Amino acid sequence: MVYPNANSELLSWPKQNLRLETRQPTDDAFYWSENQDQVVVSWDNDEHCTLQILIVHSSIILLNYGPVENSEHFEALLDIWFPLNEEQPKAYLIDTSEEALLIPDWLKLRMIRSNAPRLVDAVVEKLEALQLVPFIESFGIPVVYS
């Protein structure tokens, strides 16, 4: 069950609390056991921050419900993860600096079924036609009959 007021409050969280700061590399040691679920998210404008990957996933899941009454927060969150005319942010593992998978297949499946066109476009534009067919065959896309 979706609670519109709850989504509106949750959508306001990133705008108030996710302050993207440009950070210089530090010599601080990160311990794998403490940071295995954390990634460094980097945007094209040289901003980056360290986040739990679950924060990224939950933000994108919220976007799947589409805009609510106050779409200002929705648009702000959408611009963070799927900016217009810019590349999507990339994630890097803290311990190895290798690029991490920011949006796994299960989340892409949710995005394909989203009411937000920018989410659908973000998934489809990265897939070639030959990749799209096996993706749909593997996961399926539910159809609502009326």
Word description of this protein:
This is Integrator complex subunit 1 INTS2-binding domain-containing protein. The protein is α+β, with helices and mostly antiparallel strands and about 150 residues long. The protein has one domain. It contains 7 helices and 4 strands; from the N terminus they run ααββααββααα. The protein has helices at about 5-15, 30-35, 55-65, 70-80, 105-110, 115-125, 130-140; strands at about 40, 50, 90-95, 100. It has a 4-stranded antiparallel β-sheet with strand order 2-1-3-4. Helix 1 (about 5-15) crosses helix 4 and helix 3 crosses helix 4. The radius of gyration is 17 Å and the shape is globular. The protein starts with a helix and ends in a 7-residue tail after the last helix.
How do the helices and strands line up, and which of them pair or pack?
Elements: H1 4-17, H2 32-35, E1 38-42, E2 48-52, H3 53-64, H4 71-81, E3 90-93, E4 99-100, H5 105-112, H6 117-124, H7 129-139
Antiparallel strand pairs: 1-2, 1-3, 3-4
Strand order of the largest sheet: 2-1-3-4
Q: Determine the mean pLDDT.
A: 75
Judged by helices, strands and strand pairing, the structural class is: alpha+beta
Helix content: 40-55%
Rounded to an integer, what's the Rg over CA atoms? 17 Å
- How many extended strands? 4
What are the secondary-structure elements, in order, as H or E? HHEEHHEEHHH
Main pleated sheet: 4 strands, antiparallel
Strand composition percent: 5-15%
Shape: globular
- The total number of structural domains is 1
Discrete helix count? 7
Poorly predicted parts: 1-17, 19-27
Give the terminus-to-terminus CA distance.
Answer: 20 Å
Protein name: Integrator complex subunit 1 INTS2-binding domain-containing protein
Domain Integrator complex subunit 1 INTS2-binding: 23-143
Pfam families: INTS1_INTS2-bd
InterPro entries: INTS1, INTS1_INTS2-bd
